[in-house]
Amino acid sequence: MSHALKDFSVTHGGVKPLRHPRLNAQINGQTAIRYMRFLQPVTIERLELSRNIYGRHVPNVPTHAAHLLISTLDRATHRWNLVKEVDLPPDPIISGEGLSQSMSPDEMNAKLQAALAKPPQTIDLGGLETDHLRVECDREHPVWPNHGECNGSPYFVPFGILHPLTAFGTPSAEPTAKPLYSPILRTRQIRPRAPRGMKLHDRPEMLLFEGRRLSVGFSLRRPMLMHLGWDASGTLAGRNRLLASKPMLNNINGIGGFTGPLLRTLRAEAGSHVWTGEVEVRGNQVFYRRLRALPGVTIDLAFTVEPDRLLVDITQRCDRDTPVIEAEAFRLAWDITAGPTAAAAPPTLLPGRNGDVRLPALWAADGIGCLSFEVTSRTSDEARLQVESFQAFKALTGGLVLAPRPGPDACLTLPAGTRRAELHLAVTEFEPDSPRRSRRPGPGLRRHWGSIYACFRPEYGGFSNHAASVNCHVSQAPPSEIVLHTRRPKAGPDPLDLLKFTIGRALMDGGGYGYWRNLYLDSDPHLLCAAGRIHQSGDSADWLRETEPGLIEAADRVIKTVDRDTGLVVCHDLSGNSGSYRWSSNAADVIGFGHIDAYVNAWSYRGLRNTAALMAALGHDERAARCRDAAASIRAAYATHLLNPETGWVAGWRSRDGELHDYAFIFVNGPAIAFGLLDPPAARKAVKNLERLRDKLGLARARMGLPCGLLPIRTEDHMLPRIIPSMHPSFENYCDGSLAGSSPMYYLRAVSLYGEKRRARQLAADLDEGFAAGMFSGGMGGGQEFRSWEGMPTGYEGTLIVSVCPVYALAIEQGVIQPKSPEWWPEGG
User: Fold this and answer.
1) In this model, does residue 248 exceed pLDDT 70?
2) Count of beta carbons in the 10 Å neighbourhood of residue 447
3) Which one-letter DSSP state was computed for residue 450?
4) What angle do CA 370, 373, 374 make, to 5 degrees?
5) Is residue 253's pLDDT more than 80?
């Protein structure tokens, strides 16, 4: 009798080129690949795949797998042989049968629960004999729009769609494979000496070389780095960024291993904590020799420590061609609760496993600069950086692979023979592309100019909300302001390439947060504004042609939202009425914005001005004219419908019942005023009145940022009291008036353009001090993106990309960069 088989699975994302049917263009789809390792021969009768909730909520929409490819490895040819291709039937409930956007999320959840309650989908394998399976889901059926979508298109499959996959059958009588264990390293000569400018600490668990710009700690028991920290400014290098905690061993099957060599096969698992060999230390050099964990593969690692760089000499020897799931001769494993650390490098987008990136790359972090990742010498071109992130485990990895990249139907294979590479990790940083004779950046500005690059995910969509988030469409314009003014590093990627990848992917129906444009009306405007920044770079002709179908679609969607009667963008699915208890029509997701949204309309105005220039550059003159007309319509109607005559500033939204909802939103008034939606006298009055209220509330200093809004949000106008019921007021928490680094992003520009210069200078000085103190970023889950007025973290991200974006306005105020003219859209917009 068959029963559920225990397996030790490994999941990766995949890249699969396809022709998008609606866009009629080539895109790179995203697949989910799961390797089921049974560690012994088994006979499989069937697979069962339950629906689960992964990356979709409000309402909770189940995964909706449409197409599976099931393979086993031919151990002679090292290729994956397809044993079954499966088309799974759609579920009309998940697609939206019986659902309406007029329902509450609870009502929608109740109906969608019926899909989750259905029996698992069954795939008959007819007694297949194997010890493993490779299962790939490369397409979903359409799903119901939801606010918490992190995927979206049927061709961008959720990473966890195969997590519930279970095999049923019978194991053989053969003994199962046992976990690997090897003794600790044999110690040879240990005579360390710190190089000039560094100190040496012989600690019980590691040998630590510590300097002002770089600190590195080596285990003498295993071939592992226990500590790696750096700081381009020379003060915070002692803080460890590596994952070096044994409690993570409980989840080690998820990430594979710590910092050091890694080998994962169909029958074995070898992270750096189970390798053996020899260790020797001579001065500032550490040698791990004859390292082994599995028969037939040995690695030598030689490290040379210098005050601002780490040189790594890597030699890999294989007795024969060895098929593997993962193999990194030297891996870096980052603990993103210590702060976001991400690979700032564009992906190759070659078919097969995702996360293969172009070199040289930069490991970017918040507030401390970067480590370059440069292969300076190799025996062949087979030296690659493979990146992966694990949000569930709060970790991110990247390792040097000394093997050719396999094709999509081939297994990664370590080639027989010897492969060698020299790797340089050097302290560097992203810097503003300042004109000559510009002023010196303030300490906060210099420390955090490059912090946005710590939120880049080459394997999952580019610029994200943090180091393990997805492509967040609603947050893409603010980083583009910084990218446009960033100098290309000597040993690193062109920042513009990172932006082109990010925005191009989102425009070409790529998945991400804010995917559903009927719910998030700021997504398309943000992407179009970022596209305008790319066009302003002067290096955009080829990119514009590649993304033309997506640009046209986004432009047409925005134009269609402009209501003939009001002249403004209108959200038809979210009323904004008090007590409707729906999430927002913009990025402030838990606030009840809807119907006529002041934030959305401000961004739509700027987005349409950008799109007019983009369409003209592509030769679509009629569409460019429609964009200009729609922008003019928004500009003409904006103050009439959204300026509060009682306060003199812009309200948050006007709901379908005609009520004006005004909580003195700083994050709304900033872009509205800076982008020119108000006539100068009205703009000056709005700034003056908001600044007067800020003073009255005791918030004249802004070293911890500015509140999202200066007035408490009524309970019936947001979701926070429902999400976190409490006897305490929600004001000063999260989106309800908490201090944030994101709020001054455009408000500082508004104060500078339409307020008193003295106020703008003081606001800039306060923000620079806050950035220098690290007030606006932190490790995943730390909550520093929002603070209560006494300064306690009250968020949940830690670092939110828009929280570190005010450095753009700060750089202008400090005279470090000069804004483009016009500032917010290209000529012709």
Assistant:
1) no
2) 27
3) T
4) 135
5) no
